[in-house]
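Sample intake — Anaphase-promoting complex subunit 4 WD40 domain-containing protein
Collected from: Gossypium raimondii
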Amino acid sequence: MSKKNNKISDQLVQKAPTSIPALFLSTKILENSLFANHTHTQMASLIETYACAPSTERGRGILISGDPKTNSILYCNARSVFIRYLDRPLHVAVYGDHSYPVTVARYSPNGEWIASADVSGIIRIWGTHNDFVLKNEFKVLSGRIDDLQWSPDGLRIVACGDGKGKSFVRAFMWDSGSTVGDFDGHSKRVLSCHFKPTRPFRIASCGEDFLVNFYEGPPFKFKLSHREHSNFVNCIRFSPDGSKLISVSSDKKGIIYDAKTGDTMGQLSSENGHTGSIYAVSWSGDSKHVLTVSADKTAKIWEIFEDGTGKVSKTLECSGSGGVEDMLVGCLWQNGHLITVSLSGTINLYSASDPDKQPLCLSGHMKNVNTLTLIESNEKIILSSSFDGSILRWTPGTGHSGKLQRKDSSQIKCLVATKEEIMTSGYDNKVWRISLDQDKAGEAEHIDVGSQPKDLSQAINSPDLALVSLDSGVVLLKDMQILSNINLGFSVTASVIAPDGSEAIVGGQDGKLHIYSVSGDSLTEEATLEKHRGPISVIRYSPDFSMFASADLNREAVVWDRTSKEDH
C-alpha cells in the first residue's frame, strides 16, 4: 500500500460516533483503504488492537488470572472478557457473549476452556479456539459471582459471591452442572475461593463476614472456620505445591495455613508491611514467594518460610501521580512476570528476575471510546477520548504511550488536535482550546457557542479557524472568537472544514451532504450530494485534499471525488 493511502486510511479513524459501544480501540490501518484504487468493494485487515483497561471499583480488589503456557492473562470490562498476550500486547482477543457485566474469568488447567461469570450469577464455559464455541451455561448463584476456580483435574468448578440465604458458594461438575457438596458456614458475601492444586482436594473460601472456611471432599463438606481477620477477607490462594494456603484482608494482614489440615501456621510480618487494605495475593511458581497489592499504592514481594511466616523481600512503588487512582487492586505472578493492576486500570508488568527494572505499563479506556484523532508530527500519535473525559495517547506499533493530564477532567464529546493544541467540546455549550506540551495539557480557554456542539473541525493548515456544528446550523470560530452563527435550515449531524479553510461540508439527519464555500464569515452553498440512507455520522477529507469520505449510522461509507463530486 502506498504512503498516500496509508495517510488516507489513518484519516478515516479520526472520529467515531458517540453511540458506538466501544470497549476497545482498534487502529484500522487498512491494507486496502477505502480511497485505494477507487473501487467499490474494499477489504480491511485489522493490524493492531488497543484494548480497554480492566473494570475496577474503589474499595474492592479484582482477581485477574492467566495461562502460563500461552503467557496470556484474562480480565473483564463491562460484558466482555479480554485475552491479552504478555509477549504480544497488541494482540488481543475479546469474548463478548455475556448478557450482564462480567466479573471474573479463568482458564481450565489444560488451557482449552475458559469459564467466565457475571453479576447475574451465570457461568459460561467456552473454548479458547474455534470462535469461542460455547460448551455450557449454568445459573450458579442468585447474585453476583466474585470468584471462580477450576479443580486441578479440570472436572469441577467452584464459584462464590452474593446469594440468597446461605447460598454464597457452590461447586459443580463442569459438564453437567450437578452440585458436588454443601458449603455452609458463611453469612455474608464470599469474595474469593480456591481449589487445592494437589490431592487430597480441598476448597477454601473467604468473605465479608471476616471468615476463612475450609472444606473437604469431594463431595465437599464444611470442616473448619477461622476468624483471625478483623475486616473483609479479600483473597485466598493455595500455593502451587499444595502445602500452604494464604488469605489477605482489609485489616492489612496476611495469614498462612496448612493446606491439608487447615490449621493456622503463621502470618506475614508487620515489619515493612502494608499500611492499607490488601486486595489480592498471588504465589510464585516455586511456592516460596507471594506477591501482594494494597490500597497503600504498593506491591510487595514476600519470602515465605517453611514455618508459615513471611517477610518483605521487595517493595514495588507505584510510578503514577500518587492519587487515589494509583491504589493497587489486583495482581498475578505468572512465569517471569509480576503483574499489578491499579484502580485506574493500568496494568504494570514487572520482571520477576529484575523487579527494579522499570515496568511496562499497559493502559486503556475504562469507558466507551467516543472520539479519535490523529496528530501528524515526527511520529504518528493517535489521541482517543472516552465518555469519562480521559484522553489517551497511542503510538502505532507500540500501543499506549501515556495519558494526557488535564486540569479539567470534564466529559468529552468531540476532539480535534494539532501538534501544538487540542480543541474539545462536551455536553454543555462550551468549546475548549488547550495547549499541548508532551503528555501535559497547558493553559485552557473556552467560548460559549450557545448550544451543545454536534461536531467540531479545525482547518489543519490554519488551526485558528474552526467549524462547530449545532442542532440546525454551524458556528465559525477564529482565534476562539465567534465569526458567525449560521442557521442552515436543516438538522445538522456532522461537519468538516477543509485544511485551508476555503470549504466546508455539512451532513444532515436526512443523509444529505451540503458543500459550502467559505469566505470570511459567510457560507455559500455550492452543491448537495445524496447517496446515504441514514443520518451522516462523520465526514473527513483525504490528506491531499483531492477526496473526502462520509459515513452514516447505517454503517455505510462513501468516498467522493472533491472536484467532480462523484462517488467512487
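Post-analysis note: Helices lie at 3-11.
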